[in-house]
Request: fold
Amino acid sequence: MISYKELGLVNTKEMFAKAIDGGYAIPAFNFNNMEQLQAIIMAAAETKSPVILQVSKGARNYANQTLLRYMAEGAVEYAKELGWENPQIVLHLDHGDTFETCKSCIDMGFSSVMIDGSHLPYDENVALTKQVVDYAHQYDVTVEGELGVLAGVEDEVSSDHHTYTRPEEVVDFVTKTGCDSLAISIGTSHGAYKFTPEQCTVDPETGLLVPPMLAFDVLEGVEKELPGFPIVLHGSSSVPQDEVATINKFGGNLKAAIGIPEPWLRQAAKSAVCKINIDSDSRLAMTAAIREVFAEKPAEFDPRKYLGPARENMKKLYMHKIINVLGSEGKAL
Ligand SMILES: [Zn+2]
Reply:
């Protein structure tokens, strides 16, 4: 049993309370490899933003849970080297699907876990979430639960339709489970293909496709039931069209991919939403940079010469999210 506290990590409790009071949200970025982790830490250190490092099931399968945990431990020291004296870094399990998975992450030093029982019947979701909370809280580890189902595909989490969170259920769920934050479904979705062009309307000014509006009424209903309780948005990539264009220009073949407009996320961040998950945007930034190098310098074969630009492009994206979308810059001085 290793406590995250020995690793210099923090749980989400204090940072969420401050984020709700301050009208901003904490970025939750997924990581799968060193360059992505470096980019996240460089961006967070440079902006002095609290940050949540997320490990999904796909990441654990790809990179190994133990290795990722040691990388997060290293990230704390790296952040200090970069001049961030008091790094506020959370290591979070994204979409934990069983009690055993959550327990194994808690036992090896994760400071926060999500138990996703959203696909289960309500009572089973309550029971599973409570089991995880009861274990996690013994070690001061925070727990995110989920009510409502998001559409889309991300790693091994998928559903073909939304089921919006029912505001009338949230008090009962939070009271019975004791969870520390709640992921809700208001129309965001996993993956880069959140909406088809047919689902969108055209903005007459910009000519860009605008997806169906998020269900802000559901968010307001939840806030009314649970004043001041930390709310989480999954599936909140914006699918930057310049990255999609770069990918397609240099040999990629992405279909029309449409994400959540950033002004909507900025609006959500000002509410009780205090954690916003972003994964696909970083994948797009990485792929765009690598494709560009491959196309423009076909003789290049040193991985540092294409992973370096990929890291730089991801860092730029993370900084943009922190400063312009989430508003978390300077909140972890
Ligand atoms: Zn998710």
